[in-house]
Design brief:
alpha+beta; 102 residues; 2 helices; three-stranded mixed β-sheet; 23% helix
Length: 102
């Protein structure tokens, strides 16, 4: 996931910023957002948490590693467009439920 984030940082710099936070250094939100996975991607827009419906049941975050850079860019664009319209929950461009993982 680190490689994907580093690779897309230049592509999405006009509408998104990537922050890396060590949850052991900043434990304030760990219980609120259930941060305990090795890698978690969350989206915020103007200090508001933007939830994303990925079809997994957990709309708060992405807690698995994405391998495809374009797939991540598409997710970020979808979140940005929905957040600009004032939506607190956006629908992902792809369904990530387990029934579609082969």
């Amino acid at each position: 996931m680190d490689e994907v984030l580093a690779a897309v940082a230049e592509t999405i710099k006009n509408f998104a910023v990537i922050y890396l936070v060590d949850i052991t250094e900043v434990p304030d939100f760990n219980t609120m957002y259930e941060l305990y996975d090795p890698s978690t991607v969350m989206f915020f827009f103007r200090n508001k948490h933007i939830m994303i419906d990925l079809g997994t049941g957990n709309n708060n975050k992405i807690n698995w590693a994405l391998k495809d850079k374009q797939e991540f860019v598409d997710i970020v664009e979808t979140v940005y467009r929905g957040a600009r319209k004032g939506r607190g929950l956006v629908i992902a461009p792809k369904d990530y439920s387990t029934k579609y993982r082969y």
